[in-house]
Amino acid sequence: MDASETARTIRFTLNGRPVTTTVESHLDLVDLLRRLDHFGARESCGQGLCGCCTVLVDGVAMSGCLTLAQLVDGRRVDAVEGLDRGGALSPVQQAFIDEGAFQCGFCTPGFVLMTHQLLERNPNPSEGEIRDFLAGNLCRCAAYPEIIRAVKSAASRMRASAAA
Amino acid sequence: MTIHRPLPAGQVGRSVPRLEARRKVTGRAEYVHNLVVPGMLHTKVVRSTVPHGRILSIDTAAAEALEGVYRVVTADDIRTVVPDPWYGPAFHDQPVLAIDKVRHVGEPVVAVLAEDPYVAAEAAQLVVVEYEPMEPVFDEIEAMTSTAVVHEVLKPAGTFPDLKHLVGRRDTNVALDYRLRRGDVDAAFAAADRVFEHEFKTQQVMHTPLEPMVSLAEPGDDALTIHTASQSPSFVRIEIARLLGWPENRVRVKVPYLGGGFGAKLYIKLEALVACLALLTRRPVKWSLTMEEQFYTITKHASTFRIASAVKDGHVTGRRCEVFWNGGAYADIGPRVTQKSGFTAPGPYDIDNVAIDSYALYTNRPPAGALRGFGIPQLVWAYESHTDLIARGLGVDPVAFRRRNILREGRPQATGTVLRDAAIEGVLDDIARRMDWDKPFDRGSGTTQRGRGIAVGFKASIAPTTSVAIVNVAADGSANLYLSTVDMGQGSDTAMAQIVAETLALRTEDVKVVHPDTDVTPYDMATLGSRSTFHAGNAVKLAAEHARDQIEALAKSLGLPPGSNYGPADLFKKKYGMQAGNIIGVGTYIPDYKSPAPETGLSDNVTPFWMVGGTGVEIEVDTETGHVRILRMVNACDVGRPLNPKIVETQISGAALMQLGFTMFENMDLDGGQVTNASLADYKIPGMHDVPDEIESLITEAEQHSGPYGAKGVGESATFGVSPAIANAIHDAVGIRLTALPLSPEAVFRALREAEGNTGTDAK
């Protein structure tokens, strides 16, 4: 079967904006985002094991490289590019900068999105909970000690601003 | 942006956040991975399925017939654009696509091009290549004498004068033999009280940068632009120009940020093929490797190290080192590893009588090159395990034994080069102090046994190498730095901007670093071997000083008294009547160096600086399962004076954690030359849970007097001590000695059972 025969028009929101586009059945979400000039989610291992391609679909973190693009039809997709929509960095992004929680930066968007997910569910995670939740994200530069510090710092900033 | 009057110094030594930090946390940093060019084709290569074999036939008909395939290319097509298509940094031994025979599984044989990468991948499956298998050799020791010969004739590149003697050597797998002789080793062994002799092995592992290797070539009018995730844009330009027979200025190489390098993206990798394909098709061509393909492209040398020491009155008086480096099918930079690392094989100890033989070997494995340490972690693994065994054999505390034998400032290293600015003892002391080495230690109980270990290593810098930098001061006093050093995460943009800012009294944040673009940025040998802070840093400082001198001269020419508080912006305005003009400062740096003498391997100036790193660990062994848990890890390095302490600390912990993976579990499983675990599903790299409960990074008090603002490189230093420190701690905990990496639970378990006299093999 020709790839064009499997193409389908889908509608979804990307970082709050409606998108209508036609995608082939084999296309994955990372490639779809690339077509839409969003490069923050990146395919690295291609098997959903490294977390570089993390994207939120209806608020749930997914491996973009294992998610078929047609499956986001009708859903809400949030990529890292949406976090500073208002011009300011998110508290997690700022904490990553302040703690120096990255080196090459290739895995960073995945860690940032997963940290948001963690802190939404658990505003005050212990170090063990942080390690468990982020165990599916890999950083070959191994900035893990700094990432753990950044998550703790972001958590306390967000708790402080929620209390205010 | 307003540039204010000169600021007080203090830019150097400040933990400035990375200049590109915002781009990285928002996902907007540029990588070649993201690059899309109009009209671009994607290529997928067909790879060899046999480790060693003659190519009998290649059938591309079915692939060419697939709808959407643009072209299918073999070595014959490559030769229409490059008549002699053999490349490499040390040897010209690697074909752009396989010619006549293949030398490892995964070697590129055919390239398929299509606009749609999925079509290219499908078509690559349709190419049929027939091979006549040849006898392979995989082991580095067997390769010394095997009848299987990987390359019929050695083809060293002209780049390195000390490889010239190898030209035309035939029917050998020994690509380079380096030897060093100092003192009278035989006499030292004859006079020894005790002789210790061991053999240590390391396994083949891979860099796994998370941005897989990628290059994109765009053809132009009698010109070529290559966008590449490379650590060495200047070398790519020179090597592509050589292959094409073009002048350098017609090849433009551009490098944005790298998603990790670690040595994988050095010298020339994908660039030669994309260059040829772009010229053949007259279209831009992008080649993106998958994670799996990286395992067949470049790896870290597996090795065997036989080490023997003569000991008299508690001092090591003689040492023999025989090191065998498994270089795989293509030399890459292996021969340099063999020599540059080989001469430090006896370790950071004061030993008068030394013999070293270091061999680079071709085998039919995927090629090996440089990986964060240029061979040093393999050597330290052996000599620090060995040193620990000697101390234990003599009944001396391992730290006390090291202190007794350590190489001190002003004493000659094995090559004869006198040690300067190398805080070997300082690093050892810092670790021992942090670990309370002299205090009692909880040794655990029952099936949980605890132990601790320590190890230190050192490394010479690659030499002699050149860096050039340009600082451009604009009419408002802001500055651009033009430099071909690649920021692959180590923070070079920020550190170099700090040097410019310190010298010109600017704010680091007001210096903009122009990324490597060989049409614009000047020559830099490469971003490797922790050389940039020292070499590029010195060039940058010279360039900034050159600019500063011109600013001072401008002030003088305008009749201003020395020390007047006019800023550069005022000077430009006074000179040109408006905001106009530039001041360009240029700096070139190459250190002094003396190549080792061919017969003795000796040199009295073998390196411009020494890197020193060490590790101490406290561990827990579960004697029922062999599982080792690292409770605490202390890493210390001599980095000279740190330019940016926070980035330095991240480099130290990052390097140590990477080496932790190579120590505890990373291992390429090979079966008949095939990598059976070439994916992150089966090849595990360190994650969150592998970080020790406590990890500390110490910057040892030191200064590199010849370095920029007292600094030197740090990228590799914390890798040195990790593996032997852990093996030494396991020995301390449970009395077993592992001599091969990785230190897997299975290896520990087997050694424990063997020590009990239960090998598990006789229970049939």
Automatic annotation (TrEMBL), chain A:
<dbReference type="InterPro" id="IPR036884">
    <property type="entry name" value="2Fe-2S-bd_dom_sf"/>
</dbReference>
<protein>
    <submittedName>
        <fullName>(2Fe-2S)-binding protein</fullName>
    </submittedName>
</protein>
<dbReference type="InterPro" id="IPR051452">
    <property type="entry name" value="Diverse_Oxidoreductases"/>
</dbReference>
<keyword id="KW-0411">Iron-sulfur</keyword>
<dbReference type="Pfam" id="PF01799">
    <property type="entry name" value="Fer2_2"/>
</dbReference>
<keyword id="KW-0001">2Fe-2S</keyword>
<keyword id="KW-0479">Metal-binding</keyword>
<keyword id="KW-0408">Iron</keyword>
<dbReference type="Pfam" id="PF00111">
    <property type="entry name" value="Fer2"/>
</dbReference>
<dbReference type="InterPro" id="IPR036010">
    <property type="entry name" value="2Fe-2S_ferredoxin-like_sf"/>
</dbReference>
<keyword id="KW-0560">Oxidoreductase</keyword>
<dbReference type="InterPro" id="IPR001041">
    <property type="entry name" value="2Fe-2S_ferredoxin-type"/>
</dbReference>
<feature type="domain" description="2Fe-2S ferredoxin-type">
    <location>
        <begin position="8"/>
        <end position="83"/>
    </location>
</feature>
<dbReference type="InterPro" id="IPR002888">
    <property type="entry name" value="2Fe-2S-bd"/>
</dbReference>
<dbReference type="InterPro" id="IPR012675">
    <property type="entry name" value="Beta-grasp_dom_sf"/>
</dbReference>
Automatic annotation (TrEMBL), chain B:
<dbReference type="InterPro" id="IPR037165">
    <property type="entry name" value="AldOxase/xan_DH_Mopterin-bd_sf"/>
</dbReference>
<dbReference type="Pfam" id="PF02738">
    <property type="entry name" value="MoCoBD_1"/>
</dbReference>
<dbReference type="InterPro" id="IPR016208">
    <property type="entry name" value="Ald_Oxase/xanthine_DH-like"/>
</dbReference>
<dbReference type="Pfam" id="PF01315">
    <property type="entry name" value="Ald_Xan_dh_C"/>
</dbReference>
<dbReference type="InterPro" id="IPR000674">
    <property type="entry name" value="Ald_Oxase/Xan_DH_a/b"/>
</dbReference>
<dbReference type="Pfam" id="PF20256">
    <property type="entry name" value="MoCoBD_2"/>
</dbReference>
<dbReference type="InterPro" id="IPR046867">
    <property type="entry name" value="AldOxase/xan_DH_MoCoBD2"/>
</dbReference>
<dbReference type="InterPro" id="IPR008274">
    <property type="entry name" value="AldOxase/xan_DH_MoCoBD1"/>
</dbReference>
<dbReference type="InterPro" id="IPR036856">
    <property type="entry name" value="Ald_Oxase/Xan_DH_a/b_sf"/>
</dbReference>
<protein>
    <submittedName>
        <fullName>Xanthine dehydrogenase family protein molybdopterin-binding subunit</fullName>
    </submittedName>
</protein>
<feature type="domain" description="Aldehyde oxidase/xanthine dehydrogenase a/b hammerhead">
    <location>
        <begin position="26"/>
        <end position="135"/>
    </location>
</feature>
